[in-house]
Major capsid protein (Microbulbifer okhotskensis), 195 residues
Amino acid sequence: QILEFGKEAFRLYNARRTPGSSTKRVQYGHAGKPFALVQDSLEGMVPREHMRDASQVPGINLGQRAVNNTMGSLSLALEVEQAELARNPDNYDNDHKVDLASAQWTDDNNNPCKDIRTGQEAVRESIGMDANTLLLSAKGFAAMRENPYVLERFKYTSKDSITAAMIAALLDIDKVEVGKAVSADANDKFSDVWG
């Protein structure tokens, strides 16, 4: 089961007592939701004849390449599922989503730091803890790095390109992850997994 903890740790309890009187007790519990594990499987095949021929050329290991490509395919499929889950607005209540369609960070008048801080505050108000990770799409990260508000913050501190670690420090977030994965459809057209 997936454990879910209640909000007991955030409640205010009357813990005051007189000397010698009984202490009050609190109990913290959890609830569980059922879940199911799925299993994915792929085989990377290399004909023996191809392996034999490739072994005559230095630096070519078709077996290793087959394993790496197969693992890459499985990892990409998992990331696509994770991105679909994370990007689905129906998975969030109304307090945890903001429509930024009209506030594109490529527009010089929009401030991505302000938008993100609004989201951070919504998370803190809802769960009682600060957000510790920010996930940006590759396009969102590129737009944020070039936004004048962000560039201004780093103008006098660094000549380097703005990195995810620098954005994390600017926003006081533990980690900024950039979703750079791409997938190809049946027509071999590439698209960004994270939007």
